[in-house]
Amino acid sequence: MIRRGLVLVMLLVLLCLMAPAATTAQTPTTTPSAAAWAFDTPRTLGRDIGVIRGLATALDEHGYAHTSYLRASEFMAEASHSALIVQGVTQAGDRYERRLWQGEPSAGPTAITARQGRIMVAATLDGQVRLWESRDSGVTWGELASPVAASVAQLAILPDGRAVLALLTRTGMHFHLTIATETSSGSGTWQQANPLPTSPSAVVAVWQRDDVRTDQAGLPQLVIAQGMAGGVQLAITQDGTTWQPQTIASATPHALALSAVGNRLVVVHEQYGARVLWLASSTVREGWQVTRLATPSSVIVEANPLLHDPQTNTVMLLTTCRFPDRPFGSHRAQLCLSRVAAEELHVASAWERQWAEPWTPIAMAQPHTAQAGAVVVTRGMQAHVTWVGQFMPSDFLHINATQAGFVTTSEAMVTTVRIPALARLDAP
C-alpha cells in the first residue's frame, strides 16, 4: 500500500513538472535574427594544418568563389615547407582543391581571377612571380610562362577572355609596372605597356567594372592602382590596350582597395606607418575628392572595398578590427561593419564615430591574434568575405613554448554576404 502511494506521488510530481507554467513564457520574446538573411554562417575554408599566407579570392560570373593561398608548416615562427593551394567551385557546381606547387618556405602574395571557365593564379615564390592557369573551371591546371620577370603580380580577365597581368619588377629600391595584355584569348602572346613612372611602392591592386551593376556603366573597364610616395597612381583602360594615367594626392599607402559607389570609383588605402585610412573617389573624368579618416588607437581598421546598396544608397565597409585585450601583444579579431549614407561618403566623422564602438555582427570562430585580415570581393549584390587568423594554444601562456609543442596555426573562414540585407540590418 505504501509502495503504491509513493508511485502515485511520483506520478503527480512528474505531471506537474511536464505541465506548462501559468506565465507568459509560452509567447516568444524574440524574433529570428535578421542577420540570417544578411550573411551565411561562417565556415572553415580548407582542411590543411599550418599557417596561411597571401590569401586571395575571386568571384566568377556565376558568383562562385575561387581562392588561392600559401600554406606552410611553421614551428616557433620558422617555416619548414610551403604549398600553393587553389580551391573553388567548377561551373558544374562541384568543389575542387588543387596543390599547384610545393617546396621551400615562401610567404609571398598570391593573386587569382576567374571568368568563363578560365582561372588564373599568380604567386610570388622565392622572390619571383609564377603563373598557373585552368581552362576547365579548375579541373586541370598548367603552368604559364610570365612575359616579364617580376616580383609582384595582379591579374584580370577581360569580358572578351583576354588576360591582363599587372607585373611589378624591382630595380634597386624602386618598382616598375608592366601591364601585359593578351593579344587574343588564350593566345599566350602579350602586348606590353608601361604607362606609369617607377615608384618605391610594391603595393598594387586591380579593379574591374561589374557588368551586373548598371550603375557602374559609365566607369572604365579596368583600373590598375600602384602606390607611390605621397599617394596613388592609376592606369585606366576601356579596351585593355590603351592606358590613361592619373594620380591621387593622399599619403604613401600600406594597402590598397578599389571599389565603386554608383558612378564613382573609390580608392581606400591605409597610410604607411600611421593608423589612418584615406578615401578618394571620382568619376575618373574629373578630379579626385580625398578624405583622411583617423582610426582610434584601440582598433586597427583595414582598407577593404566598399559595399554599395543602391536601393537604400548606403555605403558599407566590412573589415577586420583588432582589439588588443590579450597578453604578449596578441589581439582579439572580429569583423566590424561601418555604414554611412552615400552623400556622407566623404564626411570623416560619419565613419570615425562608428569605430569608437565597433559593430561586430558576424562572429568569428576563434579569438584570433593580430595576423587576422579580411579579403572582400563583390559581384552584383553579393559579397564574398574571407578572413585568416593565427591563434596560439592557451598552454603557451603558462609553460615554455617548446615543451608545449607550440606550432603556429591559421584557420581561414568564409561567409557570403547579401548586400541589400546587410544595409538593412538593425544596428545595436
From TrEMBL:
Signal sequence extent: 1-21
Domain of life: Bacteria
CDD domains per UniProt: Sialidase_non-viral
Name of protein: Uncharacterized protein
Entry keywords, A to Z: Signal
